[in-house]
Amino acid sequence: MQKKQRWFDEGALVLRSVLERLGRGSDLPAATDYYACPCCLVAYTREALETGELTEEHVPPRVLGGRGLVLTCKDCNNSSGTYFDSHAHRRADTEGFLRGRVTGRYLPATMYADGIPLRGTAHRTGEGIQVFGVPSQNDPKVQAAHFEAMDAYVDSRDPNPRISFTIHGRYSEARARYSWIRSAYLAAFAALGWSYVLRPVMKPITDQLRNPTAEVLPTYMFRDLSAPPELRRILLVDDPDELRCVAVAMGEFVVFLPGLFRPLTWPQLADAFGERRNIDNQLTVILNGKEMSWPHSPTYFLDRSPTVKE
Ligand SMILES: [Zn+2]
């Protein structure tokens, strides 16, 4: 609780000074302290800590290896868990399964022989992936046809049998990406502060977070599959100039947020980075800029450096 109180006090102080600097001092009544949730921008008084309306949020989500980093409101924290983070978690699970990082797990799957489906379960062992049919999930006639096709392949010793399987990860790619984009946003908020997130160019992300079932933001992001899962980086990219942005890397995921100076909008960033990727969706350019240390609690760098102006 002590940590949350400190985060509330520091956040409230910094928020008030930033609003005054922006000429919006009257946005919040002067009589008491307010901390705003960085996702929905709703302001809360200190009682919200006691009532549980303000919660410690892990960035990235705890199940994806994150640590407590900022206060957000309970509604935003919960809705992110339901609409975004559960999808990012299921995707990580499915990919870990397919890449062989996770063994002993079972996932729903469909196997095809000559295009005839057999629904069941995939199991990853140290040896590889096994797929089993589950009788209750299959029409007996289709199941018989599937086994007949399999037997025919075995008899024919065909070197290229038409056999394949699909793992059903049951996640939405867009929602999994929003989970990572949201984590990047919260990390940038903790590092840079209200001066960064209250700019008009950031409005689409708060609109997206307040409407989790809509698709307001472009879902572009990049992945570096060679990056270690514990990697955490914030780079204020200024070279090349046409890709200026705040690049936030968490493990293999890299999210590009609007930069500090002459910021590109979200669609402009999506276009600019889209032009620089190759056919394998890899980034073909080196990004240079100022590296910021990854925050372990909110540091509000821009808010505390009034000389840094847009
Ligand atoms: Zn909120």
List keywords for this structure.
8 helices; 310 residues; alpha+beta; 35% helix; 5-stranded antiparallel sheet; 4-stranded antiparallel sheet; binds zinc ion
What is this structure's SSE topology?
Layout: H1 2-21, E1 35-36, E2 43-44, H2 47-51, E3 54-59, E4 67-73, H3 74-98, E5 106-113, E6 116-125, E7 128-133, H4 140-156, E8 163-167, H5 173-192, H6 194-197, H7 203-210, E9 222-223, E10 232-239, E11 245-250, E12 253-258, H8 266-275, E13 288-292
Helix pairs in contact: 3-5
Zinc ion binds next to strand 4 and helix 3.
What does this structure look like?
- By secondary structure, this protein is α+β, with helices and mostly antiparallel strands.
- The longest helix has 25 residues, at 74-98.
- The mean pLDDT is 92.
- The protein has a 5-stranded antiparallel β-sheet, covered by helices on one side.
- It has a domain at 106-167.
- The chain is built from 8 helices and 13 strands.
- The protein has helices at residues 2-21, 47-51, 74-98, 140-156, 173-192, 194-197, 203-210, 266-275, and strands at 35-36, 43-44, 54-59, 67-73, 106-113, 116-125, 128-133, 163-167, 222-223, 232-239, 245-250, 253-258, 288-292.
- Strand 1 (35-36) and strand 2 (43-44) form a beta hairpin.
- Helix 3 packs across helix 5 (173-192).
- Residues 37, 39-40, 42, 72-73, 75-76 line the site of zinc ion.
